[in-house]
Amino acid sequence: MTATQTGTTQRSSPELRLEQVTAGYFANDVVLDQVSLRVRPGAVTAVLGPNGSGKSTTLRVLSGFLAPRSGRVLLGEEDITALRVGERLHRGVSLLPQGRSVFPELTVLENLRLGAWTLRHDRAAMNGAVEAMLERYPSLRAFRDKPAGSLSGGQARLVEFARLLITRPAVLLIDEPSVGLAPVLVDEVYDEIIRLKQEGRTILLVDQNVQAAIEIADEVYTLAYGRNHLEGGRDRFEGQLDELIRGWLSL
Amino acid sequence: MAERSGSPVVSEDIALAPAVAAASVRRRPWWIGPVIAAAIFAVLGVLGFTLALGSVTTLIVVLLYVTIAQGWNLLGGYGGYLNFGAAVLFGTGAYTAAVLNSSLKWGFFATLPLAAAGAVIVSLVIGIATLRLRSHYFAIFTLVLTFLAAVVVRNVPLFGGANGVYVAVPIDGNNRAITLFVFVTLLVLAIIATIVAWAVEHSRFGNALVAIKEDEPAAQVLGVRTTSVKLWALVIGAALAGAAGAVYAFQTGYIEPNGTFDVSLSLDIVLLCVVGGLGSWIGPLIGGVIVVVLQQWLRVAIPDISLFGVQLPAEASRLVLGVLLIVFALFARRGIVGFVVRRRGRSVTV
Amino acid sequence: MLEQLLQAGVNGILLGGVYGGFAVGLSLILGVLRIVNIAHSAVLIIGALGYWQLVNGLGLDPLLAIVPIVLLGYLLGLGVQRGVAHYLRRESDTTVLLAFFGLMVVIETIAIIVWTTDTKTLDLHYLGGVLDLGFLRVPVARVVAAGLSFALLVALHLFLTRTLTGSAIRGLSSNRDVAEMVGIDGNRLSRHVFAMSIAFSAFGGTALALVVPFTPQDHLRWLAWAFLVVILGGLGSALRTLVAGVVIGVVESVVGVLLPFQYTYLVLYGLLAVVLLVRNQGLGGLKARSL
């Protein structure tokens, strides 16, 4: 994934916060229980935890796919709890979901253009955004007309990154970015995340790959049974990976 | 490390949708249902022997519908695969019996099992072709089949074409004797059908069907052989419908394609299962009584009603039934049985 | 014999265009919205009857009269979706199927009550008559109906593949969550696709009326045809629907020349059974339903 520097000037990115959020899917179940966390700009905040601890649900609440039963989602000073997914995208909150999320029957170019759907009223802006992504990830040009379903894992991931960034969002929510990728590509993915951080964005990373996540994270939260468990800077967790994981296995 | 939280945490991995094994926790004693059913049959039996012939014919329709519906309910109510072509299986039974009788002069008791077998064969053909698909296609396909069956019958001389087939009387005797004979036969058939439904509901086969309705992919993962379960349900339903069709053929003495392969019959069966209660063994019994009585009442009452000064045509009764179906489908999915018996389901996540 | 076959072939292509035209509504609603619109043929019938009423009853120009029917269909679709979406969204497939089955019965019965079961033949006005090309004879009305159907299907295809909204619709049908994620208003788009489907069905009714005499009770036969086209052509492509329609039309016409007329249905359904058995994987995938 070779990327060239593009002028992605960010105004200072806002902070994203969860405040005492309780959420669940069916009538009475509680998946998140009074969870709070702060995602700071210009940094990578990692959310870790065993399966079933509520990591993906956290992302769903942050992105707007799941409305919390109580608690708030704050973007900077603004309470965005009531905003739906599309509206949050307008505010600059963009999600890179787990697994393959391209539209397989559509071409890469169509996937990108749909990624810029919120810009559709200004065709010049939309075309510019698409072009900017092709500049940032030049290898996309080669398969822009191929159906996204025919791409390899790494190529699809590239398209997904491009689509994630096409609206120049300030806040990125990234869900398990390395799953299913060949090891050499995994490195490139994390390199790209570091680059995004250096561009000043606010980044939340949910990951199973604890080692890689801690390596690039500035701030780490762990969840257990849908509640806040541990939190702290990277240095607090480095070197304690084994203990951490062993602890999860005994939960 | 962290303390266990009080409430159980459900896996949020929605992609692995939970397989729901709904265990109904009945708050009533188990024998209430069977007692009610027995009472209904007893009442019907008595009425059959005491009412005038015209009313007995209505009772015959009730029993006919109950028989077919109990069979339909297995795949449709429990399994969730709606068969909009009940008339096809019914008609197959009717035609098998009719043709055997008119061409080979076979009697009632000889043709009955063969009619059921004929319907079973047809259902196997349909089932093998379509049950591997999801339920939507099965529904459309069976609906369309009704029209197709009528076309086939109309064009194959053996089946009498558009002229229909005449059937001899089932037994010797006067009108009353014949009617009572048919009535008793159907009573027995309906009772058998209800017992079969009861047995299915309380068996692993029934649980498998419900699992298929709740979440078919999960059921497959759990090892349920879904295609074979669905086929069996269809086949049992076909046997019942075919038998009912044979009785019908002997009762009316003359069958022809339009009346036999009529979507109205399919509608009636679907409606009475919905009204009575899908996925409940007593639903079709209750629904059958209610819907047939309603139909008869409509047939009598409608000609006397005028809306905005215009006489309502006979078809209006069908309109009412259609609206009833929509209303029940949207607002009272569990039917009358659902109102009465509240089922508490416990979700088990896989 | 060759002449007969040629005639049948041309007839088949024209008929096939019409089949594609009235099947595409079903293909849209099934493919994009995952709604099994069993009442599709009932809409066709109402479209045909309404059209007949305008042309025969009010004496309107048969070409112009198509427009209000299609527009009405679209508006009706918008209205119905708005009113019904709230319920359907939360319901299971079974409930939707049952409700639509009931709806089908209701619409058909209303059609019978209002228009009776008499066979209706459209008064073709200036579209009557036959194009006589020597070795070929084709009714003008059939050419018009087929031409309009072809044009509409091509237009739909271009819309779906060349415009951004079309891409959005295809994206929506592909993965609704991801579509919402990029900011597409799934509800609004669904509403318009639903309305489009009804409008296409209404158009299908007018095309049918131009080509054959009809009665309200025929609608099951048309559902059978539409279903056949949809199965053969697959979902999600206007062009494939068109091709499937033409194939069916040609097979029907040619078989009708070679075999006694009644066997055409059987042949076509045999074809369907074979296709179903072979292609079951392509159809079985539709489980998730969204409105």
Description:
With 251 residues, chain A is α/β, with parallel strands linked by helices. Chain A is 35% helix and 23% strand. Chain A is built from nine helices and ten strands. Chain A has a six-stranded mixed sheet with strand order 6-7-8-3-9-10, sandwiched between helices. A four-stranded antiparallel sheet of chain A has the order 2-1-4-5. In chain A, helix 3 (108-115) packs parallel to helix 5. The radius of gyration of chain A is 18 Å and the shape is globular. Chain B is built from 14 helices and four strands. Chain B has helices spanning 32-50, 53-78, 86-104, 108-130, 135-155, 175-201, 204-214, 216-221, 226-252, 257-260, 263-276, 283-301, 316-331, 335-340; strands at 165-166, 254-255, 306-307, 310-311. Residues 1-26 and 344-350 of chain B have low confidence and may be disordered. Chain C has 291 residues and is an all-alpha fold. Chain C has a two-stranded antiparallel ribbon. In chain C, a hairpin with a 4-residue loop joins strand 1 and strand 2 (137-139). Chain C starts with a helix and ends in a 7-residue tail after the last helix. Chains in contact: A-B, A-C, B-C.
Supply the key terms:
heterotrimer; B: 350 residues; mainly alpha; two-stranded antiparallel ribbon; two-stranded antiparallel sheet; 14 helices; disordered N terminus; disordered C terminus; C: 291 residues; 2 strands; 2% strand
Structural class of chain C: mainly alpha
Shape of chain C: globular
What is the general shape of chain A? globular
Any idea what the radius of gyration of chain C is?
A: 19 Å
Largest sheet of chain C: 2 strands, antiparallel
Strand order in the largest sheet of chain A: 6-7-8-3-9-10
* Structural class by SSE content of chain A: alpha/beta
Q: How would the blueprint of this fold be written?
A:
The complex is a heterotrimer of chains A (251), B (350) and C (291).
Chain A: E1 16-23, E2 32-39, E3 43-48, H1 55-63, E4 70-75, E5 78-79, H2 85-90, E6 93-96, H3 108-115, H4 123-136, H5 153-165, E7 171-175, H6 183-198, E8 202-206, H7 210-216, E9 219-224, E10 227-233, H8 234-237, H9 241-250
Parallel strand pairs in A: 3-8, 3-9, 6-7, 7-8
Antiparallel strand pairs in A: 1-2, 1-4, 4-5, 9-10
Chain B: H1 32-50, H2 53-78, H3 86-104, H4 108-130, H5 135-155, E1 165-166, H6 175-201, H7 204-214, H8 216-221, H9 226-252, E2 254-255, H10 257-260, H11 263-276, H12 283-301, E3 306-307, E4 310-311, H13 316-331, H14 335-340
Helix pairs in contact in B: 1-2, 1-6, 2-6, 2-9, 2-11, 2-12, 3-4, 3-9, 4-9, 6-9, 7-9, 11-12, 11-13
Chain C: H1 2-31, H2 40-57, H3 62-90, H4 93-115, E1 130-132, E2 137-139, H5 140-162, H6 164-174, H7 176-181, H8 186-211, H9 219-233, H10 238-258, H11 263-284
Antiparallel strand pairs in C: 1-2
Helix pairs in contact in C: 1-5, 1-8, 1-9, 1-10, 2-3, 2-4, 2-8, 2-9, 3-8, 5-6, 5-8, 5-10, 9-10, 10-11
